[in-house]
Specification:
Blueprint: E1 4-9, E2 23-28, H1 46-63, E3 64-74, E4 77-79, E5 82-84, H2 86-96, E6 100-108, H3 118-125, E7 138-145, H4 156-161, H5 166-171, E8 178-180, H6 200-209, E9 215-218, H7 225-232, E10 236-241, H8 247-254, E11 268-273, E12 280-282
Parallel strand pairs: 1-10, 1-11, 2-3, 2-9, 6-8, 9-10
Antiparallel strand pairs: 3-7, 4-5, 6-7, 11-12
Helix pairs in contact: 1-2
Length: 283
């Protein structure tokens, strides 16, 4: 079955190109609030950051079908010595726009990823109480649901074609609230200067919360990881990205430069540039 993919270049605070209740799953990793290495100084204030998240949450609620899932990969952020409770605030925002808080999974990065930083190393110079600040090798995967899902509406054929591999489920401990996944290494070929999550993350979420032929949305699509995995798993996708320069990377990553072809499948990619980017559409 052919799949259709749409990349919208513009801000995710407005999803005008997407119809009400036309999306089956949303998964994304928003920019982390003024993260020192990736987003330093991007937002004027924490309040403006949360307002952006609120607008995206409202639009996500509008475009998501009833009963369906929205997943946010995010975590608290330390900026200039101050820790911001992003997980708690984002959770409350999604609840306030109408979502039900369904679950939280912790993503644990490999132990070798963590190095003693100046933050945690303070206690080496001052081995006394009150000097302790931990380094973080965890991120949160927040799961929200819009209303209740009607399991009876899914045909037997679709259920079978989208069946989860229970061996994979058990061996990789998907059943746990702790997922151990290797993060994308800095300066990976298609991830240079992009804070991307590993393919394993959308792979699990898409398999667990969508059926083949359905549509997956990523409002902060970055280099296109979610769209790539959606295509590989036989789902349609919509990605929104404000950085126009990422178009060639996304096309390459998705395999729309001729390097990825599924036999007998006429997958399509549409790219829409909004007015502020001189509207044009290429396929």
């Amino acid at each position: 079955m052919a799949t259709y993919h749409k990349l919208i270049i513009g801000s995710a605070t407005n999803m005008a190109e997407i119809e009400d209740e036309s999306v089956h799953l949303m998964i994304t990793s928003p920019p982390y609030f003024n993260a020192p290495f990736d987003y330093k100084g991007m937002f004027k204030s924490y309040e403006s950051y949360l307002e952006m998240i609120k607008k995206v949450a409202e639009e996500t609620f509008r475009v998501l079908k009833n009963g369906r899932i929205a997943v946010i990969n995010i975590d608290d952020m330390l900026v200039d010595g101050e820790k911001f409770p992003i997980v708690a605030d984002v959770t409350k925002i999604f609840q306030n726009v109408g979502f039900r808080y369904r679950d939280r999974i912790i993503w644990k990065k490999p132990d070798g990823y963590l190095r003693i930083s100046r933050r945690s190393g303070v206690i080496l110079q001052n081995p006394y109480p009150m000097y302790f600040y931990p380094d973080n090798l965890l991120e949160s995967i927040l799961i929200f649901q819009k209303g209740k899902f009607n399991y009876k509406k899914i045909s037997k054929e679709l259920k079978e074609s989208s069946k989860i591999d229970t061996k994979e489920f058990l061996e990789n401990k998907w059943y746990s609230t702790l997922w151990e996944m290797v993060n994308v290494l800095p300066n990976s070929p298609l991830e240079k200067d992009i804070a991307a999550f590993p393919e394993e993350l959308p792979y699990r979420i898409i398999k667990l919360f969508s059926y083949k032929g359905e549509t997956v949305l990523d409002p902060f699509v970055g280099s296109g990881t979610t769209m790539k995995v959606a295509r590989q798993l036989g789902r349609n996708s919509i990605g929104i990205e404000i950085n126009k320069s990422l178009i060639p990377i996304i096309k390459k990553k998705l395999g729309f430069e001729g390097q990825l072809y599924f036999d007998g499948q006429e997958d399509k990619l549409e790219i829409i540039l909004r007015e502020e980017f001189k509207i044009e559409s290429v396929g």
